[in-house]
Amino acid sequence: MTDWIKDFLEQFGAFGVGVLMLVENVFPPIPSEVVMPWAGYSVSQGQNSFAAVLLAGSIGSFLGAMVWYYAARWVGKERLQRWVEGHGAWLTVTPSDLDRVDEWFERWGAAAVLICRMIPGVRTLISVPAGFADMSIGRFSLFTAIGTVMWTALLAGLGWWLGDQYSNLAKPLGWVSTAVVVLMFGWWIWRLVTQHCASRQPT
Questions:
Q1: C-beta separation of 80 from 71 below 8 A
Q2: How many angstroms separate the CA atoms of 190 and 194, rounded?
Q3: What is the signed CA dihedral for 110, 114, 117, 120, rounded to 10 degrees?
Q4: Per-residue DSSP letters for 76-94?
Q5: 14 three-state secondary structure
Q6: Using alpha carbons only, how large is the chain's radius of gyration in Å?
Q7: Structure confidence at residue 127 as a pLDDT band (50, 70, 90)
Q8: pTM tops 0.70
């Protein structure tokens, strides 16, 4: 996956950064932890400007968060949870994931939106309880934007700072990321099968 992301970013530049970050927020197995450092590396090589990749990555990530926010707000908690019970495994989401971020939001409120935007694994789903709670769009946008810009700037800055060293590390890291992706894919298949079987059991 690392090579595919690298090739995609080399072909489409900052626009590709925005597209991948949008998709990453809707379909989590595409990791921002790979996309943005590669974008930062492209800055060190003079292929993009830091402002361009930061803006593109932030906009893509922000729009992805909005997808989940409006889905939760329009569909409603009960219907979305029922859909997740039957089909959420396609997006690597389970009802327990929703319950967990819902508890965090109830405890921390708007601060959870800001903080969780910088935590892998929950940064996407924190939009859901915010939508359930009808958090104002202005407040949600503000906290989401701040957290998103901080996260994308940190990852892109890391890739930029490492420069050629990041390129030298890419091959060994590629093997690690490939192993992780294979494990994640197997885990995703397992969740998909078990969730499908559970949905078919009589209640």
A1: yes
A2: 6
A3: -90
A4: -HHHHHHHHHHHGGGGT--
A5: helix
A6: 18
A7: confident
A8: yes
